Every structure is written in structure tokens, then in C-alpha cells.
Amino acid sequence: MDPTRIDPIPNPAVRRLSLYLRQLESFKRKDRRTVSSKQLGESLHLTDAQVRKDLAYFGQFGHPGIGYRVDDLIAQVRRILGTDKIWNVLLVGAGNLGRALMAYNGFDAKGFRLVAVFDSDPSKIGKRQGPFSAEGSDASKPKRFFVIQPLSELKSTVEKMGIRLAILAVPPDAAQELADQCVESGIRGLLNFAPVSLNIPRDIAINSVDLAVQLEQLSFQVNFSPLVQLG
Amino acid sequence: MDPTRIDPIPNPAVRRLSLYLRQLESFKRKDRRTVSSKQLGESLHLTDAQVRKDLAYFGQFGHPGIGYRVDDLIAQVRRILGTDKIWNVLLVGAGNLGRALMAYNGFDAKGFRLVAVFDSDPSKIGKRQGPFSAEGSDASKPKRFFVIQPLSELKSTVEKMGIRLAILAVPPDAAQELADQCVESGIRGLLNFAPVSLNIPRDIAINSVDLAVQLEQLSFQVNFSPLVQLG
Questions:
Q1: ipTM beyond 0.85?
Q2: Range A134-149 average pLDDT
Q3: Range A134-150 average pLDDT
Q4: pTM, whole model, 2 decimals?
Q5: Scanning every residue of chain B, which has its alpha carbon at the shortest distance from the alpha carbon of A98?
Q6: Which helix (H) or strand (E) holds B87?
Q7: Closest CA to B174 of B143, B151, B142, B205
């Protein structure tokens, strides 16, 4: 499949792909083998036509009279999202949000492994952070620790561990410089939690999570409800 | 203005409203008095037509030959988003993510004031969390503390403090029950960080931030780039 021949895919369809995956994984946990577009859309308040249209951007996955095979569609969606393989991810910023991300045990099951943590604060560098519970808080699994590294080790660590994704959990006034350093070190995608707009090359992916914006969208809804419902 | 007479407003337009507000606030800090739709769109990689169309859902704000008055448009957008007033917000969950949210000092300037924190863990209840720096880390401003309250005080606190928004920073298996408790206590909008889909009444606003989904969207982009660029 030649990517240059595919029509541009709308962002909301890509976002919904993640939601379909969650829903399919939930069906799988309940031992469901097949699912219709109607069933897949139902809990997400989407029509079956919308589900079929979204999935059709990426291929032909349904079987007439059967619907979608749950296992098969999970594998296909993971392949499309790129999470059929494990991504090594680094974190810049070992403050409160950084610690929350280190402790967050929902990444592993989704194909992301936090492998390195960096900070510019000399008092934090070399300190061991943890223990954090591994996925599922399974007591038999080893606890995780992170040793905070200096930024001078960013580039060599990215190369050595083949890291392509970085999470920025840093103050707004430091975010641009640190984003630049990540890109120079070979990072291809940035998840930014700092409430600033970052200038990055167009071939680098960026996704920003501004926590105040999330609340603003809520206050809009509470003010204007029931005009819109967020996806 | 009768809200029932307004056409439904697309979610992406509402999301961009928050971005316009950030951009306008940045112009204001640089003492800009007026701005064109082209200038407003530029740093967000949006066309001037898109900016005008988005704003037109909410009213007529531009002035021929002048553009938008920065102060005026900031006030209008805040009014639309509901952040022209202060919203009292509560937090459920005093774990690592909860602590990061308590320490996050970007809410106040946007019109949100975290006023109460709840947890179900008896070992946390009554404990003082902090000190956390106030907005801008200004040393002259008082440090903030939170005393973790039991869930039995949820309803009375919501009523006493007129709280309408809640942040859920709890494990996935506790999220539905705690969301229900929030709604029963009078909460009108929920910001959910648990990676689960919650069933809530249709007249309650909900916005979910699934951190793994944010990374999934990035890995998709890095895989498929340059087909899409996230907003």
C-alpha cells in the first residue's frame, strides 16, 4: 500500500480509531468473537454508518453476515495505530506530573514502554524514582524504578535505545528549548503537557494536552449544554 | 440569545476556541491592540477563513478595516467558554496524578480554582498535601495546601461551595462508581483521566483524557506521517 495514494484521513477518524480499539479490547475480555458495526458504535454513541466509514479509510475489515472478527480487527487497528510493536518512550521532566506519568501503569498494555527520564535540575539527576507498580499492580511483577538522567545524555540514550516518542512534562518557559533538543536527538513524536504552542518541524508529530483547555471545554458544555457533546 | 435557536456547533470549533483564546492572550501580553483573522490563524496553522467561520458560530466580532480588538475578543471568548467567571473545581483521587493536578498552577489564570480533594483511602484522609506554589510561582503569594476529605463529605462540599466541575484521577475500576457519586452530588461536568468509558446521564458534560490514547495518536502519526496533522 503506497501511503502517498491514500486520501488524507480526518483527525477525528484517527481519534475514534483509539476508541474502537478500547471497545474491541473490552469485547475480547468478555470473550466476544464477532461484533457488528452497530454494536461497536453503540457504547460510543456513534451510528453504524459512522463506524463503517471510519474503518473504511484503512481497509475492508467486515465480513457479510458476520460483522467484524474481534481478534482480527484488534490486530488490524493496532497495526494501523502502530501499536502492534512496542514503542520505547522517554519522559522529560521529573516534577509532579512527571512522577504521575512514571507511576501511570496504563502505557505498557497499549504498546508503550517508558524507558528513560530526564530533568535539567541538578538536584534531581542521578536520583532513583520509584518503586512504581507494573501493569495491573500484579504483586508478582517486578516494581519499576527510574534513575533521572541529565539532558546531556538525551541524544545518546535516544540512539542507543531507539526511542522515537517523547513526553514533555516541563514548565511552559522551558518547553520550546526542550522540544528542540528532543527533535535534534532524533525524536519523531512529542506529547506535550506544557500549556504553550510549540514550533516544531512539520515532519515531527506533536500532540498537546493542555489541562486547562480540557476544563474550558467542560465549562463551555455546562454553559451551553445540550448543544454539543465532546468526542 | 435563545440557545435552542443556535445551530449545533461542531466540537472542533469549540476546541479551537480555546486555542484562539491562548493566542489572543499571548498577543495581549505583547501589547497588541488589534489582530486580523489571518494573524490569529497563522501560528495555529489555520486559514483566515477558518478563523472567521469558527468565530461566526458565536457572533459577529470583527470590525471592517480593523480586525478584532484583542481585549474585546478575549472577553467575548471567555464569556462563551464560561471562563469569564471563576469555577470551583473538585478533585477525586489523591494519588500521583492527583498530586500533579494539585501542584499544577495553570488552572487559576484560566478561571478554575481547585477547592477540594477527595479520596477513598482512609490512610490519606485528613492528611495535608502541599505546599504547592500559587500561579506563576510568585514567592510573595501564599502557598496552597489541600486537606484530603472523605467521600462522605462530597455532597455537602459540592452544595456548600457551589462546585459544578469535578476531575476524576482514580483507577479505572473505581471510576464509574465515583463518577456516579459526583453526579448524584450535583456535579455537572466531569474531566476523566481513568482509561475507561463512563456511563453518565446525557445532560452531564464529560471530557476524557486517556494518556495512552494520546500516545497512540502520536505513534499513528509517526507511522503514517505526513498524512495527517493533529489539531
A1: no
A2: 71
A3: 72
A4: 0.76
A5: B100
A6: strand B87-92
A7: B151
| A99 vs B96, B206, B228: nearest CB | B96
Q: Is the pLDDT of residue A101 over 60?
A: yes
Compute the average pLDDT of residues B111-139. 83
Output the CA angle B42-B43-B44, nearest 5 degrees: 90
Total CB pairs under 8 A between chain A and B = 239
Domains along chain A with CATH numbers: 11-81 (1.10.10.10), 87-213 (3.40.50.720)
| Chain A CB contacts of B227 below 8 Å | 3, 6, 8-9
**Beta-carbon contacts of residue A87 (< 8 Å; ≥ 6 apart):** A111, A112, A113, A164, A165, B215, B219
Which residues in chain B are closer than 8 Å to A183, comparing Cβ atoms?
A: none
Choose among B44, B89, B197: nearest Cβ to A215: B89
Among all residues of chain B, which has the CA nearest to that of A137? Answer: B171
Please return the burial class of B36, using the count of CB atoms within 10 Å of its CB with bins 0-12, 13-18 and 19+. middle
Specify whether the backbone of A67 is left (phi greater than 0), alpha (psi in -120 to 50) or beta: left
Which range is least confidently modeled, B7-16, B166-175, B176-185?
B7-16
Q: Which residue of A has its CA nearest to B106?
A: A212
CB-side exposure of B124: number of CA atoms within 13 Å? 18
**Helix, strand, or coil here: B42?**
helix
